[in-house]
Automatic annotation (TrEMBL):
PROSITE patterns with a match to the protein in the record: CARRIER
Ranges where the Carrier domain occurs: 3-81
Superkingdom of origin: Bacteria
SUPFAM superfamilies with a match to the protein in the record: ACP-like (SSF47336)
Name listed for the protein in its UniProt record: Acyl carrier protein
Length: 84
């Protein structure tokens, strides 16, 4: 992984979406990931990948604003002590 959290998260989005959402699309998007085509299965894959990569637990009981895009996800992770 690179030293830029947002770029790394965009790579995870691309992998979780099986390439349907490219890294560049994830980085440039103003719309939520769901609007870009991230399916519910893709969301679960992304959550699992983020939890594994960063050793954090994403709270599924809260409003999942962290799925609005790589920016909100990076903000969410930084607030939980993930560097980048």
């Amino acid at each position: 992984m690179s030293t830029d959290l947002t770029t790394d998260l965009a790579d995870l989005v691309e992998a979780a979406s099986d390439g349907d959402i490219t890294r560049d699309d994830a980085l440039d998007a103003e719309a939520p990931l769901v609007a870009l085509g991230l399916t519910s299965l893709g969301q679960l894959r992304l959550i699992q990948a983020v939890e594994r990569a960063y050793g954090v637990r994403l709270d599924l009981d809260d409003d999942p604003v962290y799925l609005d895009g790589v920016g909100p996800l990076a903000t969410y992770l930084r607030a939980r002590g993930v560097p980048g």
